[in-house]
Amino acid sequence: MIGPALDHVQKIFGKGFLIAAFFPSLLFVTVVSYLWVGFGPLKKIVDEWAQKGLKESTFEFVLVLVAVYLLAYVTYGTRAAAHQILQGDWPFPFYLLLGPVMRVFVRWKVRRKRRLLVRREEELNDPAWVIESEFGEASSPLQSSPVEARRQLERVRRVHGQLLRSLKRDNWTSRHDNRYLFVIRQARLLQANRGRLPIDLQRDISSLICNINDAYLDENHPELRRSVVRLNTLAEREWAAAYSDLYDNYPDDERWLRPTMLGNVAAVLELHPLNRYGINLSALWPRLIHVLTEDARARIEDSKIYLDFTVLMSLFSLVTIGVAIASDFLGPNRDTWLKILLPALALLASIAFYNLAIHANRAYAVQIEAAVDLFRLKLLDALEISRPQNMAEEKRKWEQLRYFIVQAETPEED
Do 231 and 362 sit in the same domain of this protein? Predict the structure, then answer.
C-alpha cells in the first residue's frame, strides 16, 4: 500500500523534489519543532490530532503540510545556491574572512599530495630496475658521499645475506618482502652513485650487484622473483591510488582550486571536457542533454537527486546547529548534557552529509563524464557539424564551438 502511494506522490510532485527537498524539509521542520517546544508538547499536539480524528484535524494537518511544501519548494528552487555555498562560492563578507585561509590550506594539501605522488613514482623504479633491466645501469638524483656509500654497502650486504640464509629455514612473509625491497632500493642507489665514488668502492658495489643478481636468477630462490612481482604490484597500486587521490579530487592547475573539497571535486568535473576536448562542461551540458538516451538521462538524474539530497541535508543540519544553540537559551528547559549533545549531533550530521555529498559528486561526475565521452559526437550531428577525422581535429572543433557559445565568435568552418 505504501509503495503505490509513494509512486503516485512521485508522479505528482516529481521524484527529485520528493526525495531531495520534501523529505529533508519535513525532517527539518520536525527537528526544529522539537528543539523549540520540546518532546512533550509536540507529542501532545500529535495526540490531539489522533483524538480528533481525520476529519476534525484535516485543516491543521493540511496547514502544516502546506508549510512544509512551501519550504521544500523554496529549498528545491535554490538548490543551485546550496551547491555553491558548499563548494566555497560564498558571499563577499564570508569569503573575505574564510576564503584566503581555506585556499592556503587547500594549496598546502595539494602540494603535499603532489610530493606523495612523486615519491610513489620514484618507488616504481625499484622493482622496475629488477624486472625490466635485471639490475642494469640505474640513475637517481640522490647522491651519497664515500663514507655513506660504504656504510650502506655493508648494511645491504648484511641484510641480503640474512635473507638468503632465512630462505633455508623460514617461510617467506611480508617482513621478508620489506627487507628485500630495502636491499633492492639501496643497491640501486649505490649503483646510480657508483661513477662518482672511489675505484675500490666501485668494485665492491659491482660485486654486490653481481651477488644480488645471481641470487635473484638462482632457480633455488624462486621466492625472490615472486617477491619482486609482489613489490611491483604494490608499488603500481599505491601510485594509482595517489594519482587518483590527487587528480580526481583537485584540478591540476592551482588557479582553479576552490576553498572546499566539494568545490574542488566539482571543478574537476567542470574541467574534464575542457582538458580532454576543449570545451567546458557549462557550455556543453545544456546542449548535450538533449541528445542523451532515456537510460543515460535516468542514471544521471538518479545520481543528481542523491547529490541534491546530501547537499540539502548537510545545509539543513548546519542550520539546525544554530537553532539548537538558540533553543538552549530561548527554548524549553533541558539538562545540561542534552544542551551540549543536540548541537553536537547536528554538527556530526552536517559533516556526515557533507562527506556523503563529496562521494555523491564523484558518482555524478562519473555519469557525466561517460555521457560526454559517449554522446558528444551525436551532439555534433544534431548541430549539423561534420564529425572530425581524428582527436586533434575534434578538439579544434570543440574549441571553436566554445568560443562561439561563450564569446559569439564565428567558427572558421561552417
Answer: no
